[in-house]
Design a protein that fits this description.
- There is one protein chain.
- By secondary structure, this protein is an all-alpha fold.
- It has a domain of about 55 residues.
- It has five helices and no strands.
- Keywords: Membrane, Transmembrane, Transmembrane helix.
Length: about 110
């Protein structure tokens, strides 16, 4: 049972990853870089979960208050992870951007 809970926590929560071995002993700057690069994925998962449950709640066939609460909770968790990403980007700076690459010309393929 705890294996499934651990997998669910790893899929949905960024804080779970921050407490696991490679990041647990990392510096604050490295943890902020990781959060800057990955918290958007967790936010997207929570936003999708919350929006799906909220839309299911608004249908006339399945209007359960539990679905509404879980949908709002999912949206709030998505906002929480986006806030983490913004704060981490403020601490770690912008992500590195690759230099532009020239497009091949049409005569290169002939």
């Amino acid at each position: 049972m705890s294996h499934y809970l651990s997998k669910a926590a790893a899929y949905l929560l960024a804080i779970w990853h921050l407490h696991q071995p490679p990041l647990a002993s990392a510096s604050a700057l490295e943890r902020a870089r990781w959060c800057r690069d990955h918290c958007g994925q967790f936010a997207a998962r929570w936003f999708a979960f919350g929006a799906a449950l909220w839309l299911l709640f608004t249908t006339p066939f399945v209007s359960s208050p539990v679905l509404a609460f879980l949908g709002l909770f999912g949206l709030a968790m998505g906002m929480w992870h986006i806030t983490w990403q913004i704060v981490a980007q403020k601490k770690a700076g912008l992500p590195p951007i690759d230099k532009p690459v020239d497009f091949p010309k049409d005569d290169d393929f002939s």
